[in-house]
Amino acid sequence: MSEDELKIRFHEAIEKRDSGDAEGALKILNELVERYPTRASVWGTIGGIYFVNEDWANAARTFERATSLAPRSELSSVSLFNSLIHLGREAEASAEAARFRKAVPDSLEYHRLERELAERGLALFRLGPS
Fold first, then answer.
1. CB contact at 8 A, 42 and 7
2. Largest distance between two CA atoms of the chain
3. C-beta separation of 29 from 45 below 8 A
4. pLDDT per residue of the chain (130 residues) written in tens, 0 to 9
5. Where are the alpha helices (DSSP H) in 70-127?
6. Which of 43, 46, 84, 119 is 20 to 30 A away from residue 15, measured at CA?
7. Which of 104, 102, 127 is nearest to 115 (CA)?
């Protein structure tokens, strides 16, 4: 599969996802990760589908893979954090937040999340340096 074919298939998957056909999108995306297992964007898109469908275990698994491939991806990191929180794995979520904040100290999303948790009185753990 050429780079152009990969892009076409990826966009087909996005169209299916956006039209509500999560199963069809996942079928294409899973084919793509079999052929291109190091594409963080494909893993992240799969994770997003699982996340929207509240399949937290699969969302966490795929966001872990996306984050390992793109460690500075704020979207993947925050999505992994939230998936882990939904699974009750607060220590792992906190560790991911701290890892990312160390690598990207000016992360706007983690700063926002930390403020939001503090406002709700939910600062159960520290996300890393402010």
1. no
2. 50
3. yes
4. 788 898 999 999 999 999 999 999 999 999 999 999 999 999 999 999 999 999 999 999 999 999 999 999 999 999 999 999 999 998 899 899 989 989 998 989 888 888 887 787 765 455 444 4
5. 74-86, 90-103, 108-119
6. 84
7. 127
**Cα–Cα distance between 76 and 17 in angstroms, integer?**
18
Ramachandran class of 126: left when φ > 0, alpha when ψ lies in -120 to 50, beta otherwise: beta
Side chain identity at 111, as an amino acid letter? H
What number of H helices and E strands is found in the chain? Answer: 7, 0
Rounded Cα gap, residues 34 and 32, in angstroms = 5
CB atoms under 10 Å from CB of 32, counted, come to: 21
Q: How far apart, in whole angstroms, are the C-alpha atoms of residue 2 and residue 13?
A: 17
